[in-house]
Amino acid sequence: MSKAEKKLAIWNAQIITRALVDSCKKLNPITMMKNPVMLVVEVGSVMTTILLLRDIATGAPGIGFALQITLWLWFTVLFANFAEAMAEGRGKAQADNLRKAKTETIAHRLLPNGTTEEVPAPRLRRDDVVVVSAGEFIPGDGEIIEGVASVDESAITGESAPVIREAGGDRSAVTGGTRVLSDQIKIRITSNPGETFIDRMIALVEGAERQKTPNEIALNILLAGLTIVFLLAVVTLQPFAIYSSAPQTIFVLVSLLVCLIPTTIGGLLSAIGIAGMDRLIQHNVLAMSGRAVEAAGDVNTLLLDKTGTITLGNRQAAEFIPLRGVDQSELADAAQLSSLADETPEGRSIVVLAKEKYGLRGRELTAHEAHFIPFTAQTRMSGINYNGREIRKGAVDAIERYVSTNGTPAPKEMREVVERIAKSGGTPLVVAENHRPLGIIYLKDIVKGGMKERFDQLRAMGIRTVMITGDNPLTAAAIAREAGVDDFLAEAKPEDKMALIKREQAEGKLVAMTGDGTNDAPALAQADVGVAMNTGTQAAKEAGNMVDLDSNPTKLIEVVEIGKQLLMTRGALTTFSIANDVAKYFAIIPAMFSTAFPVLNALNIMKLATPQSAILSAVIFNALIIIALIPLALTGVKYRPLSAASLLRRNLLVYGLGGVIVPFIGIKLIDVVIVALGLA
Amino acid sequence: MTLNGWLQILFFFALILAVTKPLGVFMAHVFNRERTWLDPILRPVERLIYRLTGVDETREMRWTEYALAMLLFSGVSMVVLYLIQRMQAWLPFNPQKLANIEPSSAFNTAASFTTNTNWQSYVPEVTMSYLTQMAGLAYHNFVSAAVGIALAIAFIRGIARREQNTLGNFWVDLTRATLWVLLPFCLVGALLLVSQGVVQNFKPYDTAKLIDPQGQVTEQVIAQGPVASQEAIKMWGTNGGGFFNANSSHPFENPTPFSNLLEMFAIFAISAGLTYTLGKMTGAQKHGWAVFAAMALLFWIGIATAYWAEAKGNPILSGADQVASATQSGGNMEGKEVRFGIANSALFATITTNASCGAVNSMHDSFTPLGGLVPLANIMLSEVIFGGVGAGLYGILIYVVLAVFIAGLMVGRTPEYLGKKIEAYDVKMAMLNLLIFPLTILVFAAISSVSPDFGTSQLNNAGPHGLSEILYAFSSGTGNNGSAFAGISANTYWYNTTIGVAMLFGRFLMIIPMLALAGNLGRKKTVPPSLGTFPVTTPLFTTLLVSVIIIVGALTFFPALSLGPIVEHLLMQAGQTF
Predict the structure, then answer these.
(1) CA distances from A44 to A19, A38, B556 (A)
(2) Is the pLDDT assigned to residue B259 strictly greater than 70?
(3) d(Cα B118, Cα B234) in Å, to the nearest integer?
(4) Do B408 and A240 touch (CB under 8 A)?
(5) Are A222 and B556 an interchain contact pair (Cβ–Cβ within 8 Å)?
(6) What are phi and psi of A389, to 5 degrees?
């Protein structure tokens, strides 16, 4: 499944066919109970159908009009069901793809005596240990307890490049349904059948577990309230009409009611919610609840880890700065030697810089001639003992201590260079040989392209970005300035992150963050939106309320945008729906009473042909607008990084004023067409 | 329409604009219990009241307790008023020897004055003794207005407070609203009215010999009484119940153009000031002005329409000279006082229905259909255009919550009102509040309009005008306005009871969800404002708020109105009146 395939076309034939069937199934009144607005339409349709049958039986006049009204009322319900079915259908199509990944596999369960037995994957329970070899599917979600392997996770991420998974550390989690490509690993299963990641994913995309989100519930209350108001207005209109000697038929009254109640938003509301989740999934982000998606729209503060989010993965060696009296090539040679065994990206970049700039080839050193000194938290240095040379590199404090053991203090020049580098946002790494300082390696953070613009956009929306880094405050400040974030937290420990989140939340703000390590888990759980990286530990994935399958921390920004888009779409269609009512009044009220009071034709400003054509046009418009707005509901209103004030101005103009004007034009056009067709 | 007319309207509005800030600041001080210049006199009185009643003024109440105290207080006061009416013949201050009042009328009046409605289905000067007027009605004029102010302050506190469970102390707010706000204003107001010739005495009615006897009728009874004191609170408290049946068109209630201006000013002043208090107490002064601007805009739409319709007159009266000139007002003068003319009658009618006052200086029943539509529509918008003291503010704040919720989503966030997230519970309470109004008006009016025995038989006019009269009666009751379209004989068992119930629904059933909303808002955290915050201080917000008020009101009542004043207007254009 490639990424391109994941983006489904809106009008996908297969989805439409399934949606058409589903929209009829959804007519079941018990299903309709969830949507009070459309339930009222359905009840109205049943009423007109019964009256229509009575009229046909008694041969009453005006069957044509009654029949058309009844049909279009049913269409209104069906169109709303269709919208929901379309949104669900897109999810189901994705779920089908996921199910393919859930092939029945045979697991090799490890027995206490060290041998394995073959059991079908669904019989695995939590805390079972299984052995998976190259070429086999991983039978369930779990954690590697022994070994390292490359794993093909394309079934869930769509990314074909294999990833490395290993025991211990932050890359130990594996997902059921993915495939081991090389090596053999021992996995402790962490979920029971039916509760695995893929199961949850399928349930999520299918909408089976979908619960109404807080804002959706609030909106539903508003819509139900408005429906009751209009029910009152229409039900009491009949007595007033009788007083005025102009009683109305049930067909007309039901038409008026259906046109007034907010069917447009009522019919599209659940589709908007499902489509919002769907958009996240298309970005390879899994939200564990709709609530989290809404919260993403409300986020006030984004906590972004510097490394990997704001800057390119790791620092790169950019320059060797020798101290006075030291030759540059001497420094380069020592730096390269000290880094040969250093497998960190920084270490490798030092070897590469020495090679590129000074032509020093990487040397193969065997253990007998060289003794590597690994980095420890105590010494805070690493290095090599080689041919009587003792080369060390590390943070300035550590090297100063190392140098001073020889009795001579480090030169002042060293401190100066170090501070200069730190101030400009770089990381200084001091190199010393046999207790003599040689010079400084300038490690530079590379800020990702385009980040400044994105932060500017976020700022325009009123979202504050805070960079989290383990760097010292000086370095952090420089990078923060270069990247354009609003604030930074330097020398951050996991508990500092937690404290920052709590502080922000105490001010009433909503906080979003990403994380992957087990030590991120408490903060991920505390944050309002916690996006765990799929490469992260099981603990992190369970603590967060979203999982990014691509493990791309920058995606937090997209998550926020999708959340906002979801809320904006709801608001826009609600406003549009209510604004539509103005035109419908001008169509229906004069049509209802122009027989009793011909003067009321003055209100027929659209100059609709006949009372019947006017009412029919309004009902048809009301039904067709649902279909017309399905694409908007599914794709969401276009998101723009603007301040709330300008967004409001824009959207009020488009959906508020537009909502007043569009139906005037639409109803008039429909009236012209049905008159031309001789339907009324 | 004349320039002079427009200038008078403009002058009135400028006065209101000028006092909004000083009154608002003053009320913020009073309800924040900060020092005011009246403290040396009133603070000892206040302390004495608390000592006598055992109120602990430092004790704060949750919304439920606040609501309970308010209901208890209103309930007991209502029963007392009912009993006074039922026993007035045996009580003092009754020089005219007026009889006890029959139960349905007494219930109606008790409900009416408790709810700040002051709907009067009786003729006061031949029904109510001086004691009933003063101890029964005027007392309620004070306390029902004070309750309204207290509730508005409680609502403001709900918005302003963060993570707190309480909304203030009802008894303290009630006392301070009466002592600091209503009493001083009314004292000054009453004296100014007396200076204009409004009577204030306990004398029996005068009898005057007619200079020009009309057949059998040779003398006229001239009613007297403690009018000025009651007139002042009738306006300041947006009560509207007249001492006399003719209300503010009676020369003893409203003798001069100056007294007329004074009365109109008193109707709006406190409500306008409360918008500033809202801004001050929530720390969002611009929001207070945005709310004021929304009210002002709706006021101007109403007065412009009413003045235009009344000045244009009736096209059917082709023979009559309806052109304004130096010697006559022109336009539709039926039911209007010559000393007020078209502009001041249209203005008074607009103001009294913008606010839930209900005092009248002209007969709304005699307005042209569109001119009469303005008062009716004002009430149907639930009187949030400055509105009743307190009630207008908390009424418009419910619309603010709805406007923020509907349009707030469009900025891509859970809607926030001054940092408070508007969630399901808040929307539920706002919608409950919103539902009571159409439910009460439309259902009672619908039953009345198809019931010849007790409903339509009381109408004095047929056709659309009759429907307008029914709609107006229930709107006025539910909206706690109290003005009458007249033309309907409402002192019957059916109307006394249903309008009485409508008044109680329109007051208390709307207050309870409102207080629940306030209590819930007060418990919430406040999200600090940022660029992403929904703006509630801009002209755009004002436009949005006005649109929501008009659309919600219009969508609810347009079908009914189209069969009442709208079709009546169109028929008048075609040469038919009712």
Answers:
(1) 23, 10, 19
(2) yes
(3) 9
(4) no
(5) no
(6) -90, 135
pLDDT digits (tens, 9 = 90+) for B315-335: 888 777 788 888 888 889 999
B559 to A565: CB separation less than 8 angstroms, yes or no: no
Whether this prediction's pTM lies above 0.95 is answered by no
Nearest-angstrom CA–CA distance, A74 and A475: 66
Dihedral sign, CA of A95, A101, A103, A109?
Answer: negative
- Asked if B443 reaches chain A (Cβ–Cβ under 8 Å), the answer is yes
Dist. CA B78–CA B72, nearest whole Å: 10
Best to test chain B binding among A211, A229, A466 (most B CBs inside 10 Å): A229
Contacts of A673 (CB under 8 A, 6+ apart): none
CB-based contacts of B401, cutoff 8 Å, min separation 6? B417, B422, B426, B427, B430, B517
Amino acid letter, A415: R
Determine, for residues A300 and B439 on separate chains, whether the beta-carbon distance falls below 8 Å.
no
Give the SS3 label for residue A286: strand
pLDDT band at A1; cut points 50, 70, 90: very low
Q: Do A462 and B538 touch (CB under 8 A)?
A: no
**Measured on CA atoms in the order A473, A478, A483, A485, is the torsion positive or negative?**
positive
Write the DSSP assignment of A584-599 as a string of letters: HHHHHHHHHHTTT-GG
Single out the catalytic residue among A55, A305, A333, A471: A305
| Min Cα separation B57/chain A (Å) | 31
Q: Which of A224, A589, A644 lies at the smallest CB-CB distance from B559?
A: A589
**Rounded Cα gap, residues B503 and B114, in angstroms:** 9
The answer to whether the CB atoms of A236 and B443 lie below 8 A apart is yes
> Does residue B439 sit at the A interface (CB-CB below 8 Å)?
yes
Section A140-152 average pLDDT: 85
Per-residue pLDDT tens over the stretch B138-176: 899 999 999 999 999 999 999 999 999 999 999 999 999
Residues of chain B neighbouring A230 (CB-CB closer than 8 A): 555-556
A464 touches chain B (CB under 8 A): yes
Residue A363 DSSP code: P
Quote the CA–CA distance of A82 and B10 in Å, as a whole number. 56
Q: pLDDT tens, A469-524?
A: 877 888 788 888 888 899 999 888 878 888 999 998 888 889 998 887 777 888 88
CA separation for the pair A413, A322 (Å, rounded)? 10
Rounded to 5, what percent of chain A is helix, strand, coil? 55, 15, 30
pLDDT band at A102 (very low <50, low <70, confident <90, very high): low
Q: How does pLDDT run across B74-93, given as a tens digit for each residue?
A: 999 999 999 999 999 999 98
Q: Using DSSP bridges, classify how beta strands A464-468 and A511-515 pair: parallel, antiparallel or unpaired.
A: unpaired
Report the largest interatomic distance among the alpha carbons of chain A, rounded to a whole angstrom. Answer: 116
CA distance B244 to B80: 22
**What confidence tier does A336 reach under pLDDT thresholds 50, 70, 90?**
confident
d(C-alpha A231, C-alpha A37), whole Å: 11
Work out the average pLDDT over B407-431. Answer: 91
How many Å apart are CA B89 and CA B109, to the nearest integer? Answer: 17
A660 interface with B at CB cutoff 8 Å:
no
Which of A61-70, A465-474, B411-420 is the least confident region? Answer: A465-474
CB-based contact, B68 to chain A, within 8 Å: no
Which residue among B413, B540, B573 sits closest to A564, beta carbon to beta carbon? B413
Whether residue A305 lies in the annotated active site = yes
- Are A294 and B414 a contacting pair at CB < 8 A? yes
Which band of pLDDT confidence, cut at 50, 70 and 90, is reported for residue A657? very high
A243 contacts chain B (CB < 8 A):
yes
SS3 (DSSP) at B558: helix
Q: Are A357 and A366 in contact (CB under 8 A)?
A: no
